[in-house]
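As agreed, record passed on underneath.
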Amino acid sequence: MALEEVKVLDAQKPAGQPAAGTAPAQTAGRAHVVLPAYNEAAALPPLFGRLAELARTEELTVWVVDDGSTDATAATATAGAPGLDVRLVRHEVNLGLGQAVRSGLRAVLAAADGDDIVVVMDADDTHDPALIPRLRAEISAGADLAICSRFVAGGDDTSAPFGRRLLSRGAAVLLRRTLRLDGVRDFTSGFRAYRVSLLDRAARHWGERLIEEQGFACMVELLLKLRHCGPVISEVPLHLRYDRKPGASKLKLVRTVLQYLRLLLRDRLAPAPYRAL
């Protein structure tokens, strides 16, 4: 089992747990931005710059999850950026995107207040932090989960490679027909905002099994499990900036397709939670 190291400056506080059946609280608190990162030393400085600019008007804490990188990702995260609260979570070895997301969520839930939000986005600078206020507004308006979507009016992913676009669109069609989740068109987007209470409810039920997938299918897996909580879901347009990505994609097309198919089969065979979440 790889050591997971968390470097923080502030004392940790337990996540708020509103009483069952109460209306969702307004989210005037801090946005915790989780950045799963594997060899992203080149992408982090410009992304930190955009986040620091946003931090002038938004309360932000950035959690970089260094997933066993072999470059200077950890040192870059430790250096941070002026005016930006950056915290580092480390895996000694590469465990995959799914476990990096899980470690980031676990670290945030141990520190967040009940009126905070959790934003997960890619660390390769293809996601624009300027969308975070829009995500916050969606959750403040009543959504439990807000997705940055390439497949709604105003969304765009034309800068991505053809194979990646084909996979995303094919997965969207398959999952939309199979799962029929209201308000979701982009099932595989890695740029989302969650109400802390939603993640906390799911984490208390699934524990370490909240995310079991290692690869890119983890975002679909998390969505499948969160649907048992009955969340209100909304989407906002995402203009993917793949042209800002400094390195090659880490997505393996055939492997990811097989992961999606295996995940759907496992979901069909797995029983629903025995109690309301």
Remarks:
- Strands lie at 4-7, 31-37, 60-67, 86-91, 117-120, 145-149, 192-195, 233-237.
- DSSP finds eight helices and eight strands in the chain.
